[in-house]
Amino acid sequence: MKIQEFENLSNIEKFNATIDVGEFVMCITEGTKKCLLYSISSFFVEEQWCISSKKIEGYKSFTEGKLLDKFTGIILS
Questions:
Q1: Contact 67, 55 (CB under 8 A)
Q2: Quick one: pLDDT at residue 77?
Q3: Which residues of 27-37 are buried (b: 16+ CB within 10 A; e: fewer)?
Q4: Which residues are 46's β-sheet partners?
Q5: pLDDT tens for residues 59-76?
Q6: Rounded CA gap, 14 and 52, in Å?
Q7: Residue 72's closest CA among 33, 39, 48?
Q8: What is the pLDDT at residue 67?
Q9: Which DSSP letter does residue 51 get?
């Protein structure tokens, strides 16, 4: 799956793709949100959860940059 294909999916399809073909990398907590990082093919997906409601708030797909930096800073320290 390519990043453009993932971005064109509905939220339920993104959830299914993340679970079915994604590989869980790690989880971090940022205030009231929990962010789960998955690897899919040649890109990453951040699944954002609201801790209090226990619901998914959205998905962000990326290959590099600031979104990945917040996870790599934890891995490298």
A1: no
A2: 45
A3: eeeeeeebbbb
A4: 37, 60
A5: 999 998 777 777 876 554
A6: 22
A7: 39
A8: 77
A9: T
